[in-house]
Amino acid sequence: MRHLLALDAGTGSGRAVLFDEEGRQLASAGREWTHREEPGHPGSMTFERERNWERLADAVREVLAQVPGANVAAVSTTSMREGIVLYDEQGRELWACANVDARAVREVRELRERDPELERWAYLRSGQTFALGAAPRLLWLERHEPELYERAARLAMLSDWIAVRLGAEIALDPTNGGTTGLFDLATRRWDPELFDRLGIKPAFQETPVREVGTVIGEVSPEAAAATGLEVGTPIVMGGGDAQLGTVGLGVTRPGEGAILGGSFWQQEVNLDGPRSDASGRMRLNFAPDPAQWQAEAIVFFPGIAARWFRDALAPDLKERAAREGRDAYALLEELAATVPPGSHGITPILSDAMDYSHWRHAAPSFLNFPLDPEKAHRGAFFRALQENAALVTRANLERIAALTGAPLASAVFAGGAAKGRLWPQIVADVLQIPLKIPVVKEATALGAAIAAAVGVGIHRNLEEGARAWVAWEREVEPDPALAEVYDEAYRRWKAAYPAQLELADRGVTRSMWRAPGE
Description:
Strand content: 15-25%
CATH class of the domain at 3-249: Alpha Beta
Number of strands: 20
CATH topology of the domain at 3-249: Nucleotidyltransferase, domain 5
CATH superfamily of the domain at 3-249: ATPase, nucleotide binding domain
Largest sheet: 7 strands, mixed
CATH architecture of the domain at 3-249: 2-Layer Sandwich
Structural class: alpha+beta
Radius of gyration: 22 Å
Helix content: 25-40%
Strand order of the largest sheet: 14-15-13-12-18-19-20
Number of helices: 18
């Protein structure tokens, strides 16, 4: 029996997940990590390459130890999008940042001041704004680290960084590379005109572009010593986490949609061609299938908010879960399940609905909670957090439907949020559509494993692999009786959020996150 290994550099952790050639998940291991802010550079998120590589390699060793005699036929990689890594002409790593690095405030403002129409032009050409694009960060480096910028010759993404560490060539794929904002949405390749008008040196265009599922190298002796993998194991091009996640959910055809519930929640809807969003609110990406694109919306930090709640407000449950061999989130859901839908009117303020052209969020807060311990307790606040993620997802899907003209009649739901019983039901009830829950919740990892399988000929293409491997655990039907409850919660949140956002815009409160230049 052959095995496929997926390696994932996520926002909050690095993971290694092992599958057999029939798509069964055999073992997984993860290591939590955080991203350091550089002193003197507010909003920066440095990706600590050496530390994180050691943690990821350690996770690989743990996974291989769980499956003695594992026969790894290929390994593929995936990661948060937008995080970039620079290399010099000799292939040496120079610099890296994580996905929501927001240091380039001045550079974004200068680009906008130089030409007020430049960002819209770039968005219509690339599907991306300056919010998380590579151009402002590269211009920041040119200003603050000119010698480093001058030496930089290749640009890749964090998924590619893992592959290079394993022994692959420096290359990137469209699903992740497209989030640089330097790709032509129509061609899936670097766009020289974007480089020219944004003032980015053209050398980075020499970085090869490889499609998902292409063999790009083999595990080196150094990587084998660090990870326990066999020297010569094929390395297959992976891609962006959300895009490979759709493959791992069997969402491979135009019109199909998925909700990935991790640190961030992404809503992905497949398109049969590139679209222009006149509102500028939606993000447009390349799908793993070269003939498809995706409309994307993002809810910021639901998983990170849940982790904060667990660690800050429920450390006793975390300790109890460790003693009992349970998941602390399962204990929190048990508390939340005792609370009626609507959470007694408690309204969390976290992520706004997707507005890619003016991307920022209000200060985190809880509104409208009663000073009644029978109603305002940990279970109620945690349920309110869960409901809020679903409500913002609803807002995002409504905005995607305005672009496509076709609301989703059903969706696939996966990621860490799909592991419990309560959160999927809340999402179905808020959206009032059925959700399919896959057996393998690690959808992004499964998508990367499918890419690995394509690379070594186990499957002919990604769709065939998805149809063969994706299995369903259950379907969650919405409760029509709760539609009115959640309609009211939705109206309340939509009315409350602009006022909270205004406070953050005025500097009265501190924004949870805002894109550079906002």
